């Protein structure tokens, strides 16, 4: 898809600016230019498509639809809804609270909280641009499965008293309709939303690609492969434990994932690391502590953490 840009960026870096091929600096600069433009273009395209689809729904409609479904069906639908919400782990919490205030079962709300940062359109766009559609579909499938199972287990075994905020009846009456508007209005709204999201993340893309470029040009492949390659059976577990204390968006993490895999890190290990950073961040835990008991937070992190580890090992086994 981007062969034209690969050739053009090579000409710009190595012919026009005369960087030497095969050198640390030359390869880093080429990686930075090529990946930055490629990712920016795909972000704009995919976020616009998802934003356009989102114009057909509103939060109240989703609440109404979920409130009338059985637990497992609600888990599935909430996990799918997470795909079209552009939230990181912390910014997904307000909508998570809104769902709880609407008295949607807690397991269903947790399915959304797991899925939204892990499977949002930004992560999907970046993953597709770097690894292709097969890996992207596998990632989405395993991410949704983690959200469904995690939310269901929390709903079955979590205690209602571990929710520390009062769940008062909201003004929401359980009824809502699909948004009805013109195609032009939908297109305009989708573009405005796309541009708004893009303005918030393009610098993170620059940061992520910049760090990735340094790794790409200067970090020896043997160093990465030694600790996170096929020879280390604990690589996925280590990657997840390393990712939890960190906090970053998929826009910042995905370029680094690309470089780590090119240096010898197994793809499942790299994706588990990214999933832990985006879906199980320490700042998220600190915010949740204000509204949930430590027991429920521990269950949430434990179940999702185990799911992410399993996804990593499955990816490593099948790819």
Descriptive account of the structure:
The protein is mainly α and 319 residues long. The chain has one domain. 74% of the residues lie in helices and 0% in strands. It has 15 helices and no strands. It has helices at residues 3-16, 24-54, 59-67, 71-83, 93-101, 106-119, 121-131, 133-157, 183-218, 221-228, 235-243, 250-262, 267-279, 282-288, 294-318. α8 (133-157) packs antiparallel against α15. The mean pLDDT is 77.
Brief rundown of the structure:
The protein is mainly alpha-helical and 319 residues long.
How many separate helices? 15
The proportion of residues in beta strands is under 5%
Ends apart, CA distance between termini: 22 Å
Task: Give helix % range.
Answer: over 70%
Number of domains: 1
Q: Point out poorly predicted stretches.
A: none
**Shape summary:** globular
DSSP strand count: 0
> What's the story with the biggest beta sheet?
none
Order of helices and strands: HHHHHHHHHHHHHHH
